[in-house]
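Following up on my earlier thread - several people asked me to post the actual chain instead of describing it. Fair enough. Here it is, all 315 residues.
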Amino acid sequence: MSNETYTSSTRIFKELLDEIGKVVVGQHEAVEHMMIAILCNSHALVESNPGLAKTLTISTISKALDLKFNRIQCTPDLMPSDITGTYIIEDIGGKKQYRFEPGPVFANIVLADEINRASPKTQSALLEAMQEKQVTVGNKTYMLDKPFFILATQNPIEMEGTYPLPEAQLDRFLLKILMDYPTFEDENEIVNRYTKNIVPSVKSVVSKTEVLELQKLTRDVPIAEDIKVRAIKIVGATRGKSEHIEYGASPRASIGIILAAKARALMKGRNYVSKEDIDVMAYPVLRHRIILTFESERKGMTTDQVISDLIKNVK
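Reply from S.P.:
Thanks for posting it. Predicted structure:
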């Protein structure tokens, strides 16, 4: 690992966030969490209402990181081969030969837009790519280029004609990120920027090699034993006798909170994980991994409210 990358990591993240901010107004937490998922070499699920710049945000991040970006618009008639790729027949010198034509999943950053509109069979085609970082077509396996990151989006409003992601696939996402409406000031700035002739653009500030080095650096961030224990206790509390939680989170959540906390510490310019890192990252790591009881949902409780109570009760 390059010592130069470590010493300049604070500068790299500042330049990166400043560059993304030229195009994306506000949404600082969402951008930070997407970057954290990339640093952890994992994937993220984003939920928001339409028109809140999900596609713009992730495509801007890919440009700033100098990574290849592809977008998949999920629809009910989308087939697995539309994602992974397929063999096509070519006539070469009078002989017919099969050639593999890679699908849109062969990129560094892949946006699976409205993933819950795709059929379960197509959703499962992403599982191997997400977990193993490879694609199997026929009897041949193709490795995906590193780094590889999937950002899937869901629209919480239109649920008719959708296929909710199964728990096994939800668990593959490190974070569930929520994007909210902009403030008045941010929306005013959005209108000012995007109603002129000159459209904001972004330039590359980090190379692919630096991204891979930062991923390695993330895992090297030290964490004190008591801070690590706190993360495990928070996840363990989801499995105890709770009037609000039907099913708790697996050990994958403990790994996720600690890794995400390390990435957040690195982005904040610290070489240690703080209690705040654990508490802040518990929300996006746990909100799609716990299932609330029917009574709690009937009362209108949200997973974030339940997670907040758990964090307050863990000493």
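The CA atoms of residues 108 and 146 lie 6 Å apart. That should answer part of your original question.
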